[in-house]
Amino acid sequence: MSRTFCALIIAVLLASCSGGPTSAPRDLDNACAILKERPEYYRAFRAAERRWGVPVHVQMATIHQESKFIADARTPFRYVIGVIPMGRQSSAFGYSQALDATWDEYLAESSGFRAKRDRINDASDFMGWYMNKSREKNGIALHDAENQYLAYHEGNTGYARQSYNSKPWLVAVARKVRARSDMYQQQISGCRLSRW
User: Fold this and answer.
1) Could you tell me which residues are beta bridge partners of residue 155?
2) Going by C-beta distance under 8 Å and a sequence separation of 6 or more, which residues neighbour residue 9?
3) Per residue in 5-17, pLDDT tens?
4) Domain range for residue 43?
5) Which of 185, 193, 97, 103 is nearest to 144 (CA)?
């Protein structure tokens, strides 16, 4: 066989082994369009909702804020003198932007040793697990997208200390997450989800 043909076969095999699309859905402002374009998202969100009680729209709004539904999202690089890369801003990765240490804690507690942050079903399950921790530790209702986001961003200890009060930009972002969650909830109530 020619080298070109072998390379083509290898490329096709590698592409077929990928975990699914890494790019964002087309219309991020329409929950129905997102779920219709990516039915695997709806299955993942519903599974997390059944297991952890976190509503689909809260999961979606948080993922929108964290990664814009990009599977392999990472934080930007830090630079010294504006040109020398010094690593990423944090270890956050994937749909949920889970940090390495928090992800490891999730894996240890959930026995999900094969879970990956760039798979939507694992990311949504992680989010349900984390938001339940926020409910247990800080009394945040699972449907309270704004306060769940603040705890998600600051950590449950930071939330308990109200560290977000010194970050007006974060409080504004959390309000946007709540507004998007409300919008997604209203849109989902009109979706014909039974087809998916």
Assistant:
1) none
2) none
3) 444 444 434 344 4
4) 25-69+119-190
5) 185
Q: Sorting pLDDT into bands at 50, 70 and 90, what band is 84?
A: low
**CA dist 194 to 32, 42, 46, 122, 183, Å?**
12, 11, 12, 23, 20
Is 195 a domain residue? Answer: no
Residue 127 lies in a domain: yes
What is the Cα–Cα distance from 186 to 81, expressed in whole angstroms?
Answer: 47
Is 49 contained in some domain?
yes
CA triple 160-163-165, angle to 5 deg: 115
d(CA 90, CA 76): 8
> pTM of this prediction?
0.82
Q: Tell me if 20 sits within 8 A of 119, measured CB to CB.
A: yes
pLDDT in tens, 98-139: 888 999 999 999 866 788 889 999 999 999 999 999 999 999
Count of the separate structural domains present in the chain: 1
The structure tokens listed for 194 are 């039974």
